[in-house]
Batch of 3 targets.
Target 1
Amino acid sequence: MSTGSPRQLWLLPVLLITVIATALGGLLARDLYSEPVTPPPATVVATSPSPGPPEEQPGPADVRGTADAVVHPLYHTLRKLLQTYFNAVNAKDYAQWSSAVTYERQTNQPEQKWRDEYASTKDGNIVMHRVEARGDGTARVLLTFTSTQAVTDAPQELPEPCIHWNVVWAFSTEDGEWKLAAGPASATPQHEACG
């Protein structure tokens, strides 16, 4: 009875070791590439923070997001844009503000008009609640924030030194970059006096 040639005897263990090594390599690669995504940054808030006492208004100027907003693919891009926008308002920096908005919005709010309207404004307690993107290069953000201002710089319909805003702001791409746009959603905010 023949047990096979010596060449055939060593081929089977080598083939078996190769198959086992390949399977183990595949399992290791799967584990390596299926690491959980890093948790959202520290800018996540559960809900809108409760306003502090009047002397602490408008609150922190950093733009934060709820868990719902943070998971949206556009969150970081639009958050950075909003941070530029609010930093510009707080610093009274029209050039910086202009870099965050569309050309149409700049045209509707030339520098002197902008300076007159935001002369005493400070914004804070800024929270992105929801981000909705559309396939046509536009998006909307549900946003809340608090502003403080001289009563003379407040909206005519709400002449108050401190206002809580609940807005839906429009965004669009212009020259390949996201910008805060003019639009009906941005033009009709809901707001109420602090207190």
Target 2
Amino acid sequence: MTEVNRNEVFNQVRDALVELFELDADDIKPEAQLYQELDLDSIDAVDLVVHLQNLTGKKIKPDEFKAVRTVDDIVDAVVDLLEAE
């Protein structure tokens, strides 16, 4: 399997955040805090997980997303999922 491209994953996560929550793409940086800076809430997080599941075709356990605090954390989680084959 090829190595997952972090940049591609970041771009997909950023696009999802823009599409789902009408965020400004310029505000979505790897270190951006999801809840404090981007104003997401737990319902938004669930919507994002569902969107990422559809995108990746992988089942995401809610537990895996409990520790997610930043955009980069989401990217890490998705990369781990994609590489866990």
Target 3
Amino acid sequence: MSEARADGAGAGPVGNGADFAGTGAVVTGAGRGIGAALARALAAAGARVVVNDLDADAARAVAAETGGHAVPGDAAGEDGVAALIDAARDRLGAIDLYCANAGVATTGGPDAAPDAWELAWQVNVLAHVRATRLLLPDWLERGTGRYLATVSAAGLLTMLGSAPYSVTKHGALAYAEWLSATYRHRGLKVHALCPQGVRTRMLDGTGAHGQVLLAPTAIEPAEAAAEALRGMAADEFLILPHPGTAGQYAARATTPDRWLRGMNRLQQEIEAR
């Protein structure tokens, strides 16, 4: 995709049947978990990776491991996103692939604190808007670009016990759908990575709901990353690492009352534990 890289060497395309060799890639939230696994998988596939995380030491460690370049900092706020993209372009020459992986999992419902709701909106939704606002002009001019949003299956279904997470992940999915519907004919490839449970610190913080709903079928971050690369290579919009997700999504869409009754039964079972 990229026509040039900062050191003058060529870069490979990530179009149909994506070959990631030489691709200039940015991965946010890449200090651990799915983000770190994405950085490792992309580097192993030959991509040149910029590793971003709020945890500067974690970002530098993953960058050192993958031969990438660490750009620690915020990947959600206006200033942080702009600084990340500027630094990545300085390093890569052009950004071919942006993996918007950073996210926050806030528990609770209407009782969740206003600042918890605000943080979820900023990181899980507006970070995507701010990144694409800066990425799209170059991508549309070149007629090529690739955007991977780590959405979570909560964006397709819901996550009991966590209204801010569920609502904002629905928003992230809706924005990814809008991007694809609007710019697909101009060369933009958009992907929504929607795993269920993944063995990360985020899963550890989901409490009883996560242990009942997610932990039994949780996969390793490397498995989610491998599915992400496979799905991008196949130009799939929805990338579903868990085989049962598609059926659950179809049931939600076609028999919503039955699906909601089933989810409510699960909620009652968790409350009775």
